[in-house]
Design a protein that fits this description.
The chain has 291 residues and is an alpha+beta fold. It contains 7 helices and 14 strands. The chain has helices at residues 9-18, 29-46, 63-69, 72-82, 110-113, 222-227, 257-276, and strands spanning 20-25, 86-96, 104-107, 115-116, 121-126, 138-139, 151-153, 165-167, 177-178, 185-190, 195-197, 206-215, 219-220, 234-237. The structure holds 2-oxoglutaric acid (AKG).
Length: 291
């Protein structure tokens, strides 16, 4: 491997051994607070919090989200883990309101992506404090070595994974580790790392974005290619290796009509892809962006 750009050798080895790495400082806390202000200005303008499909592929809707996505520190760290040719395949905005029971059940990101090989890294970027009290993410170290696990259906109205799909594995809290973050820090986890998070018992919003990156050699699996249910993606560094990820266009503004159209098309391609995989995880995107 070439000389790492951002992570040191011990951090890279730790990610390979444990399937996660945290915390990594991306930007100053003030810069993160500035992005939070842009998010919340939009929420005030529309009159309700980010909701429904606005939570998915958010980088196609807002130029400030695209700026976070392409932050050089994030891409340098991701490059150190998956190489120089990088696409973003998905993004979920995970916001837990103060004193909310919203939780995320134990799962692997690989379940929803249909990618081969299982080589994908997610960066979770904090815009507010993610603490034990506000429901930071927890991971099961080493679980990335288990490969793709089957899932159980455990529907629960408070599960932010609205499908209720949960990895078929008995996970004891004591075997997991929390990944608390300060605003402007990120954690990184492998696509097969089992992770989840409890509710927010604090009196502040827990705001984090997960950015799902794939190295350009990875492809949709055979079933997705044959059924044509290809999820769009966006090259963020380096070059494409194939045409199986229809290319997206970055947003020009803040939820302007062109970006809204591009975002809807991107989310629709994601929804078709997860449905072709037989998952119902896209149910949350069925909610209109209005309340
Ligand atoms: O934000 C959370 O608590 C869960 C996030 C998650 O599941 C992910 O980043 O893949």
């Amino acid at each position: 491997m070439n000389h790492p750009k951002m992570l040191n050798a011990a951090q890279i080895q730790s990610f390979r051994d444990n399937g996660h790495l945290t915390p990594v400082r991306v930007m100053a806390a003030e810069e993160a607070t500035g992005y939070r202000a842009k998010l919340e200005a939009f929420e005030r303008q529309q009159g309700f919090p980010l909701t429904g499909n606005q939570r998915a592929k958010t980088y196609l809707l807002f130029s400030w989200a695209y700026e976070i996505l392409t932050h050089p520190t994030i891409l340098d760290a991701v490059e150190d883990l998956i190489g120089p040719d990088i696409l973003v395949y998905h993004w979920t905005s995970w916001i837990k309101e103060p004193n909310s029971k919203s939780f995320v059940s134990w799962h692997q990101d690989a379940t929803y992506f249909g990618l081969e090989p299982l080589d994908q890294v997610t960066a979770w970027v904090a815009l507010s404090q993610a603490t034990l009290q506000s429901g930071c993410m927890r991971v099961l170290p080493g679980s990335h070595k288990l490969g793709q696990l089957p899932v159980d259906l455990k529907p629960d109205k408070d599960n932010l994974l609205s499908s209720g799909q949960t990895a078929k594995l008995s996970v004891a809290d004591k075997d997991t580790v929390p990944m608390p973050l300060q605003p402007g820090e990120m954690s990184l986890h492998h696509t097969c790392t089992v992770h989840g998070s409890p509710g927010n018992d604090s009196d502040f919003r827990r705001i984090g974005f997960c950015l799902d990156f794939v190295p350009a050699h990875v492809k949709p699996n055979k079933h997705l290619i044959e059924s044509g249910a290809l999820c769009s993606a966006l090259l963020v560094r380096g070059k494409l290796h194939h045409d199986y990820f229809p290319q997206e266009r970055p947003p020009a503004g803040i939820a302007d009509p062109d970006s809204v159209r591009e975002h809807e098309a991107g989310v629709e391609s994601y929804r078709r892809m997860v449905q072709a995989l037989g998952h119902m995880t896209s149910a949350r995107f069925d909610k209109p962006a209005a309340q």
